[in-house]
Amino acid sequence: MRAEMVPDTAGARAAPRPPLVDWRATAATAGVGAGTMLVLVGTLLPWVTATGELRPVNGLAGDGAYLITAAVGVAAMWVAFLRSGGSPVLRLLIGLSGVLIAYWAAFDTWQLTRLASGGVVAGLSLLGPGGPLVIAGGVVVAASAVASPRPAAGARSVEPLRVLLAAALLTSASIHLQLMPDHFAESWILGLGFFGAAMAQLALGAVIMVDGSRLAYLGVVGLAVVLISIYAYAVLHGLPIGGRDMEGLKVGAGEAVDLSGALSKGAELVSIVLAGVLLARR
What we know:
This protein has helices at 23-44, 64-84, 88-117, 130-147, 160-186, 188-211, 214-236, 259-281, and strands at 46-50, 57-58, 124-127. By secondary structure, the chain is mainly alpha-helical. A hairpin with a 6-residue loop joins strand 1 (46-50) and strand 2 (57-58).
């Protein structure tokens, strides 16, 4: 009877097991989350305190809408970064977004404090917590991007058209969000309309950045067609609500075409084209 050969595994070295938790990715994710929260909270807090009949000035009175939109974009890019296995392009975009947020907030803070200290606006005084928090949030986001894990072996490259489409949506959303307070002053219906458009574009931009789908692309086209149609009617004929006098190019009997309106509609036209191309590819 032949004896079976049993391999000797006593001296074999066990293969190293991959770590159950990637602490570097976890720490970077916590940093990006903390940074974006600092930006969102800091935008809503006072940037400059006030005395007398004046009220404290928060970030929404300045460029807060753009900072909020940038924070949403950073969060969406980070999720896409993790899903792709560490795309270098997204890593770079997240880091640059953090630097831009910090610079933008620092510039606005400097402008506000200069106006307050120079007595240009009477009643404005001490620096509030909002600006420094937003600056800190941008720095934390940039540092987290630098400290994030290097691309994995199977990392996927990000689709450029998807990034451009998300950028177009966030651009138009930031303009709608920035103009929302003025339109609320005209009519609560207009204000809610601008708020709804901004939220829908923010949501679509985040979804497309993370993982584009046919339904999301169709939603982009439908929303953009509706918004452009309403704007065209407001310019050519005028809406039955609102009625604020605007400076700009008069095309029809309605409101004038200003730079903000032209930029937002231009971004929506670009989003229609990009979404159409991505739909055709799918």
